[in-house]
Amino acid sequence: MNCxxxxxxxxxxxxxxxxxxxxxxxxxxxxCDRYEILQxxxxxxxxxxxxxxxxxxxxxxxxxxxxxxxxxxxxxSWQRACMRFEKEAKTLAQLGSHSQIPMLLDYxxxxxxFYLVQExxxxxxxxxxxxxxxxxxxxSVKQFLQELxxxxxxxxxxxxxxxxxxxQNLLRCEDDGRVVLIDFGAVKEQLVNQVxxxxxxxxxxxxxxxxxxxxxxxxxxxxxxxxxxIYMLTGKSPLEFDYDLNTGEICWQKEVNISNSFAQVLGxxxxxxxxxxFKTANEVITALxxxxxxxxxxxxLTNQKLNNKSITQHENSDVYVPPVARTANAIRKxxxxxxxxxx
Length: 343
Fold this sequence. Notes:
There is one protein chain. The longest helix is centred in the N-terminal third of the chain and has 21 residues, at 75-95. A hairpin with a 5-residue loop joins strand 8 and strand 9. The chain is elongated and about 70 Å long. It is an alpha+beta fold and 343 residues long. The protein has 3 domains: 11-119, Phosphorylase Kinase, domain 1; 123-294, Orthogonal Bundle (Transferase(Phosphotransferase), domain 1), CATH 1.10.510.10; 300-342. The protein has helices at 11-24, 75-95, 126-133, 138-157, 186-192, 209-212, 218-234, 260-269, 281-298, 308-316, 323-342, and strands spanning 30-31, 35-44, 47-54, 62-68, 104-110, 113-119, 123-125, 170-173, 179-181. Strands 1-2-3-4-6-5 form a 6-stranded antiparallel sheet, sandwiched between helices. It has a 3-stranded antiparallel sheet with strand order 7-8-9.
């Protein structure tokens, strides 16, 4: 990794550097003596993202260069930006060891701007995928959740909140079909902090209220993931739905054709009230496992009522009891306890 200089540059130099990258895009001129800039992948308020080739490595592999542009002439702000950028880049480097997070290849500062170089993942975002092929079914969305929830577990274990989970930031890898989470907002937030009095990162409709109040928690990512699932099921942005005036939640239930059990899981993921929402990714995984497992076992239950005496005798006897029967008895007891608790 390259060290940072701490000299202050004015905004005109930053703008000229951005223009220079735009100008060399598509040419054979190299950036930092190694990167051939092929095309612009995206442009936003925080900077520009380019697709590039590293000409110094065998095979000239593709990579993504993210150019982040803090506009400040204050020496102390610049030093803070350098320190924060380096800290956040190191965090991204640690996270990149996960197969569903793009690996950070390099980071450096040049002429008043910061650069991240990351692994290029070839594929379509879920937003483009849904636009091309239409909304997904329940089975497909459940599979998506089973793939992505462990990624949230991994992030939260490392004390990182993504804060901008949405279909545009989820890529389906063309090579092996895995879902990859991209565009971490942590670095951008720290840089924006130098020129604004807010550290909000997120997307309207996908970010929950506590995130707009600048108090994101792990459950904020769960909310955004739930809204993403609703988008996959309907093809609609959250801003296209009506809102419940009492709760502030989007009215999505009538737009989908899914099982009641799965609807309950999604409903709890997108609760506005934090106390009613899943707190951790592990809670969602457990709920998904239970709701897919219990209906199957329920089919094994007999319609005949068994009194407690017969069940006790059955369990205490030396007669072999098949696993399905033992599980069915356990479910009966569990349901009985639930009913007693409700009373």
